[in-house]
Structure formats: structure tokens, C-alpha cells
Amino acid sequence: MDLGLRGKSAIVCASSRGLGRGCAEALAEAGCDLVINGRDQAALEATRADLAEQFQVKVTAVAADVSTPEGQSALLTACPHPDILVNNNGGPPRRDYTELDRDALLGGVVQNFVTPIELIQAVTPGMKERGFGRIVNITSLSVKMPIEGLDLSSGARAGLTAFLAGVCRQLAPYGVTVNNLLPGKMDTDRLKGGFERTAQQSGKSIEAVREAQAAEIPARRFGNSEEFGQTCAFLCSQYGGYITGQNILMDGGLYPAAF
């Protein structure tokens, strides 16, 4: 399927690995020029070289913390007029709510609420003027189904979801869409780290923990970055213009509800 994205430009935050990289790969395959981002310079450069060679598109790497004004400025300098923005950022570490002090709370809110809003504020004037824009925010299944220890991440991302529910309707008349992708248990480094913690706490092997968690998912498997990225690319495509303000669960059926 031709997604109608050839020649478009995209900023994909936190895209040197994992779900962000999956989104970058799918957009590059569709013909987008990319600005990718991460804090690990070596991993970021390896991703840049791989995507540029594989898909023959322009790929610019910006090593920066997207949560900082300096990092955001570097991204927007590299791509001042993006057609697509994929907001992504690492979540706060798993921690019981009683252990969160003010600095930790504010840090989580900056990472997963303030930062994506600041980037949206920066890119939407140009999108409105050109009559095309696609914004996809990578949030989490935990926005809809709370996960113990991820309260700060869940709360900040739920706040972002509510904030943008009105904003997306202001942007819709200009051909600009805003949607959220909510990953469940995806086969990423973050999930593997969770297996290790659970194995240490339970005394079970990592493989036993992995199998038990996969068995809880109706699809009986974890998701992967490729299918996640392709869903992101479709939302960004010429066919996604009538989809806005939506929360797309990618969880293999784990969330047990009809609505």
C-alpha cells in the first residue's frame, strides 16, 4: 500500500531502539525523510546508518534529551517544518507511589506530559498553514489499565491524553490529526528488564516468567516493534486523515473491555 508519505518529513523522538525505532523504520519504508533522536550516540548513529542505507531516505540523527529545551531546539533546528511528529520518551522507573518525592513527580510529568505538549505547540502552526500534519503520541496500556508501580508514568500519560482530547479537535479543520498509540506488553528491552526483576523476586527463571506473562495475553505472544511501527505509519498516512483523538490499543487483547 502506498501511504502517500514519500517526501514528507518526520521527527521521531527516542527512536534509536525499541518502539520508537519501529516507527522510524516504517516511516522510512514509506519514503519519509527522518530526524531520529536518542541519548546513546553510538546506538543512534548505527540506527541512522542502517535506515539510510536500507530505505534510501535522508536520516539525520540528533543526540539529545528531548525533555530539555536544548534537546527540543536541536530537533526543530534539524527539521523546522515537520509533516509528522512521533512523541516518545522513556517513562519513569517502576516505583511504589510512596517512594515518589516532589522531584521525581515533577520529572515524570516533564518527561511524559510537558515535553510532548511543548513539541506539539512548536510544530502545529506550520502544519496548519500547510494543511497537513500527523501527530502520534506513544503512551501506554497503563493509561487505561493501571499497572502497579507505574503510577507516575500512567498519570502523566493519562493527563496528556485528556489534554490533547480537546486540542485535536481544534486542529482537525486544518488537516492535522492527533492520535495515541497504547502499547501493551511489547518485546522490548524495558519488558525484558521487568522479566529480570520478577525472576529475582520470585526465584523463577527468566524464561518461566516470560512464558507465564505471554500466557496471560489472549494473543499468547508479545507484540513487536515492526507491527507497532506499521500501525504508526498508517495513522500518519494519507488514509489516516479521518482518524483523530483516538487511543489505539496494541496489547493482543489484554485489556478486557468492549469500549
Structural class: alpha/beta
Strand sequence of the main sheet, in spatial order?
Answer: 3-2-1-4-5-6-7
Q: Low-confidence spans: pLDDT under 50, at least 5 residues?
A: none
- Helical content stands at 40-55%
What is the CA-based Rg, rounded? 18 Å
Query: Roughly how many Å apart are the termini?
Result: 29 Å
Helix run count: 8
- Work out the number of β strands: 7
The percentage of residues in β strands lies in 5-15%
Largest sheet: 7 strands, parallel
- Mass-distribution shape: globular
- Note the run of SSEs as H and E: EHEHEHEHEHEHHHE
Query: Roughly what is the average pLDDT, rounded to an integer?
Result: 95
Structural description of this entry:
Helix 2 (41-55) links the parallel strand 2 (33-38) and strand 3. The protein has a 7-stranded parallel beta sheet with strand order 3-2-1-4-5-6-7, sandwiched between helices. The protein is 47% helix and 14% strand. It contains 8 helices and 7 strands. With 259 residues, it is of the alpha/beta class. Helix 1 crosses helix 8 (225-236). The longest helix has 29 residues, at 102-130. The protein has helices spanning 18-29, 41-55, 69-78, 102-130, 151-171, 189-202, 206-215, 225-236; strands spanning 9-12, 33-38, 59-63, 84-87, 133-138, 176-183, 247-250.
Attribute tags:
single chain; 259 residues; alpha/beta; seven-stranded parallel beta sheet; 8 helices
SSE order and pairing:
Blueprint: E1 9-12, H1 18-29, E2 33-38, H2 41-55, E3 59-63, H3 69-78, E4 84-87, H4 102-130, E5 133-138, H5 151-171, E6 176-183, H6 189-202, H7 206-215, H8 225-236, E7 247-250
Parallel strand pairs: 1-2, 1-4, 2-3, 4-5, 5-6, 6-7
Helix pairs in contact: 1-2, 1-8, 4-5, 6-7
